[in-house]
Amino acid sequence: LGLALTLATAVAGAAEPANQLTPQEQAAGWKLLFDGTTTHGWHSFKKKTFPTKCWTVEDGWLHCTGQRGGDIVSTRRYDQFELQWDWKLAPAGNSGLKYFVLDSRKSALGHEYQMIDDLRERDALRGEGKRVTAAFYDVLKPSLKTTVHPPSQINHSRVLVQGEHVEHWLNGVKVLQYECGSPALLEAVAHSKFKDLPGFGQRAKQYAIGIDLHR
């Protein structure tokens, strides 16, 4: 069971190939969250160091091979951003890319872009479609269905946070959008597992981006 991914973030544009930025991408504001060779820029939640177990860097990918590595979060803090990343899972894998992760919380909770083996991991069958790949985990289900490549094959994802507006993309297709603080989102949060978490439906400021591994 595991997760592998490459990441880049910016205000505009696209970052290809992974872990390399062209001069044009640099001028557009793109910055690598993962340099392809080290874990620089990441650490365990509420710690200053990177996990000593389960997380590794191999062949330009950041791998997690087990739950004991724990969630990791970015050292940089963000307000608005566009994030793109490539990822792949082992069979029955279950992970997520989180944003709005705040150190003030007891755990690395945030709005989560779900990454899961939709066919083999049972959690994908729960939540009435709100726990499948590209969902806002347990809160909003994708409004469109798109192709999810099977385990061990690469998927490309994107999250855009622009003001209160948020978008989830999967393999080039926008599959979900919502407005932070809107009545529709707050109602959805009220029916989720995050209903008792203060401010969960609002856009956070100066937050980390996190990666977790449920399974």
- Average pLDDT over all residues: 87
Q: Give the structural class.
A: mainly beta
Topology, number of strands: 13
Beta-strand residue percentage: 25-35%
Q: State the distance separating the first and last CA atoms.
A: 7 Å
Which radius of gyration do the C-alpha atoms yield? 16 Å
Q: Estimate the helix proportion, in percent.
A: under 10%
Give the low-pLDDT segments: 8-17
Q: How would you sum up the major sheet?
A: 8 strands, antiparallel
Principal-axis shape equals: globular
Number of helices: 2
Question: Which series of helices and strands comes N to C?
Answer: EHEEEEEEEEEEEHE
Overview of this structure, please?
The protein has 215 residues and is mainly β. 7% of the residues lie in helices and 34% in strands. Strands 1, 2, 4, 5, 7, 10, 11 and 12 form an eight-stranded antiparallel β-sheet that branches. The longest helix is centred in the last third of the chain and has 8 residues, at 183-190. It is globular, with a radius of gyration of 16 Å.
